[in-house]
Automatic annotation (TrEMBL):
Protein known as: Uncharacterized protein
InterPro entries: G_crystallin-like
Keywords, sorted A to Z: Signal
Signal peptide bounds: 1-19
């Protein structure tokens, strides 16, 4: 029998899908997803975002809270405003940013999309 250590939640968020897990260790990232954390160095609140776009990260409890991320298998565009407005960063497939502090867009991301 397999023991499940983390509780995963799934919700539809504005055309995309969101999975949440209490720790990064218990998460199974989507091959094309964007993993985000509210604190630097993969700490704090964790979300695994996937789908073509998430128009409002507030619905996932992550609006203006992202401090580190990892783009898995796909290029992602990160926007300062909801509805994919005001591009602040593009993340290449496989890119990991441990600390957005000092970049000008720490805790400023409000929507994301594959690009």
């Amino acid at each position: 029998m397999t023991t499940v250590r983390g509780l995963a939640l799934a919700a539809i968020v504005a055309g995309g899908t969101l999975a949440a897990a209490p720790t990064a260790a218990s998460a199974m990232p989507d091959a094309l997803g964007l993993q985000v954390w509210s604190d630097s160095h993969q700490r704090g609140i964790y979300r695994n975002l996937f789908g073509p776009q998430i128009m409002d990260l507030g619905k996932a409890g992550m609006d203006d809270k992202i401090s580190s991320f990892k783009a898995n298998g796909s290029k992602w565009c990160l926007y300062a405003d909801t509805n994919l407005r005001q591009l602040v960063k593009t993340a290449d497939a496989g890119e990991y940013v441990a600390d957005l502090d000092g970049t000008g867009f720490n805790d400023r991301i409000s929507s994301v999309a594959r690009c």
